[in-house]
Structure formats: C-alpha cells, structure tokens
Amino acid sequence: MISREVVMYKLKAFATSLAVFTVFAVALGLLVRFVMYPDYLFWLDGGIQGLKLVWTVDFFLGPLLAFIIFHPRKVRQKLLTDMLIVGLIQFSAMTWGAYMVWSQRPVAIAYSEGQFMTLTPEVISLQGATLADLRSKSAELPSYFYQRHPASPEEEMSMIGLAFTQGIPAGQQIALFVPVSSIDSEAFSLSNRVERYVEDEMRDEWRAWALGRESATPADYRFALFVGRYGNAVLVFDAKAKFAGYLRLTGEKLPVLPLPTPRRWDAR
Questions:
Q1: Which residue of 81, 104, 153, 186 is most buried, as measured by CB atoms within 10 A?
Q2: For residue 201, how many other CB atoms are within 10 A of its CB?
Q3: What is the pLDDT of residue 264?
Q4: What residues contact residue 81 under an 8 Å CB cut-off, 6+ apart?
Q5: Counting runs of H as helices and runs of E as strands, what totals does the chain give?
Q6: Which distant-in-sequence residues (6+ apart) come within 8 Å of 203 by Cβ?
Q7: Which DSSP state fits 90?
Q8: How far are the Cα atoms of 28, 72, 111 from residue 155, in angstroms, in the given order?
Q9: Which of 121, 127, 17, 125 is nearest to 62 (CA)?
C-alpha cells in the first residue's frame, strides 16, 4: 500500500507539472481562439478540436507522467534525471501541439461552387506560393476571396495542370483569387436562396442573432454557405461586404436551397 508521504510527494510533483501545463494551455487557447482560428473558425474548422487533442496529449505526458514516476525514495540524482525527462517530454509535446495547430490554421476563406471553404498554409505551399502572395491580395488573414474565371488559355491550362499534378481544385488556387469587397461579388450569387432557407428553416436562430443589432432586416445583409472541416454554417455579411456573423447549421451535409423568390418576411 502506498504511504501518505509518497502520495503527497507525487501530488506535489503532479501540481507543479499541472501548473506548467495550465499556463501553456491557457496561452495556447487564447492564441488559437483569437488569432489562429477567429470567430466561427474556432468551432467549425479545427480550432477547438485541435486544442482538445493537444491538451489531452500534454496532460498525459506532463502532470500524469510526473505523478507516476516521481518517488521520494529515489536518490537525488535520479530525481533530477526524472525531472529533466518529464520536462523535456512535456516541452516537446507542447511544441509539437502548438506547431500542429498553427500549421493547420485557415489562412484564407475562398468561395467556389456555391460555398466558402478554408485553405491551410500547406495548400498554399503546394502551389509554389507563399503567404506573402496571399497578403498581396488582402493584408488581413484569413480573408474572404472568390474564384474568378481564367483570363487566358494559358491561365486555364495552368489551372488544369495544378489540379491534376497537385490535386488542388480551381477554387483553392490563389492565382484566381479576388477579394470579396462588394455585395455585388460573385460570392453572394446564392444570397437570395440562402436567405430563403434562413426564412424557412432558421427563423428563430436569425431573430436571436439579429437581436440588438443595428438592423434586423435580412435585406440589409448578404448570405453565403460555409463548409468547415468540423461543421457548416450560414455566413452573414453587412452592406459593406464585411463579415457580420454566422448561423450554425446542423448535420454534416449542406441544406438543399430553395429557388429564389421575392422576400416574404421582415424580421423587425
């Protein structure tokens, strides 16, 4: 049977490692929530999912490992070695976790074939491009883009070649990206139909979202569908084509949109 002295010693080691883990977990959580995966991207495109994985791994490789291997009857040299090993393992796990979440962050949100989807740095690099190329189109990342049509036969061949050699569809090729800067953008070509869907199926969600906002009238906004890695949503943009909010969709598949018709409702 483990003595009280041993248990208290192990708990002390556990608490020390837990304090280090907590500082890291909070710092990484804030960075992911507000910088790497802002707003709905945190919930729908891998932010919270990545954090849960990193936190779980780091917790087991830090505090729990310290609790298991530390023992007061070990000689000082052995204890110092154990501390070094646990610290190295915990630091390595933290570094690996932070890098994995960072490397999979969305750096662009592109509209193609009726929906917005995110792009990661890996997709950018596979095109022989860099984030600097993306920033030349829009200084703010992640930013919203739509896919224009190729301007020449050469550009079209380049688009097809990239799709076949790297498996990157046209909607993710940054050479064809145009920033969404107006409500007349092609990114809102289905806005009326998405608005109809909100009217028919998400009236309560809309009213809750619009409560207290400057305008609760759908006609003052533009709507678009978003497909994330872990969930889908209806994105809402204001009259200046700036992101205003989102309504989360249930289920794994996008809804079938109704045909466009004149508006039948006013949320005011």
A1: 104
A2: 15
A3: 56
A4: none
A5: 10, 7
A6: 265
A7: H
A8: 41, 69, 19
A9: 17
pTM of the model: 0.88
Domain boundaries, the chain: 4-103, 108-179, 186-249
Q: Check if the beta carbon of residue 144 is closer than 8 Å to that of residue 243.
A: yes
Handedness of CA 44, 47, 53, 59 (dihedral sign): negative
pLDDT computed for residue 262 by the predictor: 62
Q: Report residues of the chain scoring pLDDT below 50.
A: 267-268
Amino acid at 142: P
Q: Which residue has the tokens 């070094």?
A: 84
**Two tokens, residue 86:** 């646990």
Tokens 């995110």: give the residue: 118
Q: In 108-143, which positions are buried (b, 16+ CB within 10 angstroms) versus exposed (e)? A: bbbbbeebbbbbbbebbeebeeeeeebeeebeeebb
Contact 55, 10 (CB under 8 A): no
Q: What pairing do the DSSP bridges indicate for beta strands 177-179 and 232-237?
A: unpaired
Q: What are phi and psi of 159, to 5 degrees?
A: -60, -45
